Amino acid sequence: MTTVHHLARAVGSTGSAVPAYRVDVRAGPHQLLADEPADAGGGDSGPSPLVLLVSALAACTATTLRMYAERHGWELSTIEVDSRYDVDDHRRGTIVRTITVPADVAGDRLDALASIAERTPVTLVIRAGTPITTTLRPEA
Question: Which candidate in 4, 5, 37, 100 could, as Cys together with 80 as Cys, close a disulfide (CB 3.0–4.6 Å)?
Fold first, then answer.
């Protein structure tokens, strides 16, 4: 028998009293806001869902690399992760991630960080094409 372990949960809600595409998101004790940009009919009061997705990748990558460096006693003053979602003319999507570390990080350390970046939890989830099970239920 397979045991399921809940690693993350978020609840999004929207209503008729808020701007058209604004979504209030609860993630544990945290409150977030998502919205669509104005050119897509939203109020641009928060990041879009796709921006939140690439934000999760950027945050996970930066955190994982920081943890790895600390475990190895490496001093990394900054780690910047720029991630974006692009689509081509055929609507095929790709995520482009650029990681910037201090100039003095080179050789084996740079290779190790690049390898770790390919195995961060969010990277693995996105690449795995994680199945999504959806249940639609009427309000109680």
Answer: 100
Pair of tokens at residue 33: 């806001």
Domain ranges of the chain: 1-47, 48-130
Measured distance CA(73)–CA(86) in Å, rounded: 36
Q: Which residue's entry shows tokens 């969010």?
A: 122
Question: Rounded to whole angstroms, how far apart are CA atoms 21 and 41?
Answer: 8
Mind listing the pLDDT tens digit of every residue in the chain (140 residues)? 888 888 899 999 988 767 889 999 999 999 999 999 999 999 999 999 999 999 999 999 999 999 999 999 999 999 999 999 999 999 999 999 999 999 999 899 999 999 999 999 999 999 999 889 999 999 88
CA distance 95 to 92: 10
CATH topology for 48-130 is GMP Synthetase; Chain A, domain 3 (3.30.300)
Going by C-alpha positions, the residue among 71, 84, 56 that lies closest to residue 116 is 71
